[in-house]
Amino acid sequence: MHPQNFIPRFVTLAILSASLFAHTSLIAEEKRKIDLEKDKVYEHVIKPILSANCTTCHGSSKSKGKIRLHNPEEIKKSESVVAGNVDDSMMIERILLPEDDEEVMPPEGKKRLSSEQKKMLSWWIAEGANFEKTISETNVPEEIGTILASLEYTPPIVIKKAFNLPEPAQAANGDAVTAIGKAGILVMQLAQDTKYLSANVINVAKSFNDAQVKLLVPVKDHLTWLDLSRSGITDQAATDLGQLNMLTKLHLENTAVTDQTLQQVGKLENLEYLNLYGTKVTDAGLENLKSLKKLKKLYVWQTGVTQGGADKLKEAIPGLYINLGWQAPKEESKPEEPKK
Ligand code: HEC
Q: Per-residue confidence at 125, pLDDT binned at 50, 70, 90?
């Protein structure tokens, strides 16, 4: 008898959703004042200005004017910054142009830089365009000091990495990504600083079928989160699914998949999270998952999986958390058969 069987349903639901959320949540930290002792000029003052105003066009996904400004290497390569020389720095020239000038940056129609932001960028370049120094290691004229004292810093949103994979050298094939998007599947870069992709079929779940899983195979080196929950997929999609070997997270809950699909899922050796809630899988299917040594979380609530089957899998994969959910006390409260 397991005491958890008596935990009221809502509690288990809350735990289930809390742990799902923790797994995917974006961690946004609080705004704070700039620390004039410890904070760095580039990281805490300059980078946020560039990130908020320039990198949508000059960043990891676009390089308008053939320059990118989202990290020190790219800024150096852009040659838009001449250390110690504000007058020769194209970045400053462009941001100081009159608002209606054809060449002003950000371009006409976009949000203007404030005069404080312009002064910050000029100060940074005048002081050597250094990427490492703290504010306290840099010469701070009085006017700049006043602005810095009133500045706030918001740490960038960081995605809690649910995986530990080497970053792909190349971005995913653009045509393949477009084809996936056209089928109504939501496909996105997982985070700003990675080429990995996530895909979900929430918008088209009802019409999504086995044939469409084929669209995902061309981006298999990049696709690491996939949500097919509540879609029309069946075991017919298993072979294609089995090729998506960079998946770290897979949602198959509330679909028609069975143990047959798990034979293929058992090949996805990078998998860390697998949700099979509300499917027809059984203990026999779990046998196929024993090779998934990175698996950390498995949801098999409302399936044919038993506590015994779950325990066997846990033996094979140390540290694995398996959620069997809530089970009707009626069935569970029957006294156990005496062992023969
Ligand atoms: C909406 C898109 C967009 C935004 C936002 C934007 N730019 Fe640009 N930028 C362009 C385009 C397009 C060009 C190429 C055409 C041109 O030179 O005007 C360009 C060109 C440049 C160039 C000249 C590159 C070269 O070598 O010719 C610099 C420098 C520049 N941008 C800096 C910035 C900075 C700094 C910001 C933020 C403060 C910024 N841009 C924001 C679109 C943008």
A: very high
How far is the first Cα of the chain from the last one, in angstroms, to the nearest whole number? Answer: 18
Strand 26-27 vs strand 32-33: parallel, antiparallel, or unpaired?
A: unpaired
53-63 CB burial, b ≥16 within 10 A, e <16:
bbbebbbbeee
Closest residue CA from atom 12 of ligand 1: 64
Handedness of CA 245, 247, 248, 253 (dihedral sign): negative
User: CA 140 to CA 21: how far, in whole Å?
Assistant: 43
**Quick one: 66 exposed, middle or buried, by C-beta within 10 A (0-12, 13-18, 19+)?**
exposed
* pLDDT, the chain, mean: 86
169 pLDDT band, cuts 50/70/90, is confident
CA distances from 75 to 80, 120, 154, 155 (A): 7, 16, 22, 20
Q: Which of 105, 115, 117 to mutate to test the pocket of ligand 1 (most atoms within 8 A of CB)?
A: 105
Question: Relative to the CA of 78, which ligand 1 atom is closest?
Answer: 26
User: How many other CB atoms are there within 10 angstroms of residue 280's CB atom?
Assistant: 16
Structural domains in the chain, sorted by start: 9-21+162-323 (3.80.10.10), 32-153 (no CATH)
Cα 139 to ligand 1 centre (Å): 28
In this structure, the number of other CB atoms found within 10 A of the CB of residue 115 comes to 9
- Report field, pTM of the whole predicted structure over 0.85: no
